[in-house]
UniProtKB/TrEMBL annotation, chains A, B:
GO molecular function: DNA-binding transcription factor activity; transcription cis-regulatory region binding
Domain HTH tetR-type, chain residue ranges per copy: 11-71
Annotated source species: Nonomuraea rhodomycinica
UniProt lineage: Bacteria, Bacillati, Actinomycetota, Actinomycetes, Streptosporangiales
GO biological process, one term: negative regulation of DNA-templated transcription
PROSITE patterns reported in the protein's UniProt record: HTH_TETR_2
Keyword Transcription attached: yes
Residue range(s) of DNA binding per entry: 34-53
Pfam families recorded: TetR_C_7, TetR_N
Name by which UniProt lists this protein: TetR/AcrR family transcriptional regulator
Keyword annotations of the record: DNA-binding, Transcription, Transcription regulation
Keyword flag Oxidoreductase: no
Length: 217, 217
DNA sequence: TAGACATTACATCGATCGGTGTAGCGAATG
DNA sequence: CATTCGCTACACCGATCGATGTAATGTCTA
């Protein structure tokens, strides 16, 4: 299981195959994406794919791993860049959320279409591989975000019992409307309002409480 | 477009086809689910399917519509049953969340696998049909939940600017861990803790604020 | 230069699948 | 009883697809 497979073939061809496969897997899904189409997209012969990968399944797994790795790196980088030094918590969280959402529309966008494919075929994926992916992908970013939140809480700005759960809540709230209205992803102002609302809920919730500066009946 | 198609064939056969198709579409996805397998699952001949539906695509659309309708009805019912009369807001929201999550493990469970299939093939679905589904499915439940929250806010228990957005936040927070750990869906106590944490975040957020009963520096 | 290796185009195989045609069976209706 | 209609079983077609075989071309290196 820990065996390291020696790379065969030219590495640039291999990368072209993987990126082309990512494009088509993301757009058409595992079953629909034909190997001929992938080969054409990668500018590579059909036969070359089988020189680098034994199987369509192995190609798919490789695509997932490499794409997950890259996206997780990006996410962790965003977390570190925005939440290492916090001066205005709410404003910094909003900026962080905007950068976070920016990834969804970047050149890494196909990855998230691929994630939806994975979620769809989740019943057909061996649980071990699934767990491995979760741990190295969303799990890793969640742990990183949780650690940052824990430190902020340590300084007394947040009251967090379970940092991992809080991180999950924050990630959900930041991209809340993304799940219901994907068109809003390209409207900058609406996007900022969504993030601001999510961050506000994350910090303050919705319960009405008496103001501190003014008396209330 | 508004034409009403007269039903052909025996209605019980038709229902068997639709429910069988739901099972296989949910498990295997649109492409993988073969018509022979669907026919076998429904206890029906292959040819009978084409007596009731012109196309595989039309069968799929029918399955989506009927399943969406049933689930939305259930959801709306849960909302009305738990949030019409609220005495203890936080406790009632937790109970509501538990009932909400209960649907995910009920006999309606295949529906949500079908939703994942839709999300995966979202690029290949005509936008009009997609909008129609969103409006009659999640959109409808969200509007219903938003209306309940608006009334609660009117009574002064919640401070809500945008009820629709608040409803979205609540739905996300209730089933937060569902997205990362589906195994927890069958542990009653862990499930209740997840819902309680989500509701607590929805109401109070995470920001640390001075207590009302005790002085703080 | 010679040999090893990667890539390519092309042909092919077996399997699956969506969809259709056909003939026969059974039940309900008149 | 005769007709109609829906269901079934079966065979079949055309297309797609994953995967392999093969022979030729190109490229890098010893």
């Amino acid at each position: 299981m820990t065996e390291r497979k020696k790379p065969v073939g030219q590495p640039d061809k291999r990368r072209a195959i993987v990126t082309g496969a990512l494009t088509l897997f993301a757009r058409d899904g595992y079953t629909r994406a034909g190997l001929d189409a992938i080969a054409a997209e990668a500018g590579v012969s059909n036969r070359t794919i089988y020189n680098h990968f034994t199987d369509k399944a192995e190609l798919f797994q490789t695509v997932i791993q490499e794409s997950t790795r890259r996206v997780a790196d990006t996410m962790v980088d965003i977390i570190d860049r925005h939440l290492s030094k916090v001066v205005d918590l709410e404003a910094d969280l909003v900026d962080f959320g905007m950068a976070w959402l920016g990834v969804l529309t970047s050149d890494l966008a196909p990855h998230f279409a691929l994630i939806r494919q994975i979620n769809a075929e989740i019943e057909h994926i061996p649980p071990a591989a699934l767990e491995l992916w979760r741990d190295s992908g969303p799990g890793r970013t969640r742990r990183e975000l949780a650690e940052r939140l824990r430190r902020i809480a340590e300084r007394g700005e947040l009251a967090i019992d379970d940092p991992a759960r809080a991180a999950g809540h924050l990630m959900l709230l930041i991209s809340a409307d993304n799940l219901t209205d994907r068109a809003a992803l390209h409207d900058e102002s609406a996007l900022r309002e969504m993030v601001a609302a999510g961050v506000h809920t994350f910090l303050h919730g919705y319960v009405r409480r008496p103001r501190h500066d003014a008396g209330e009946q």
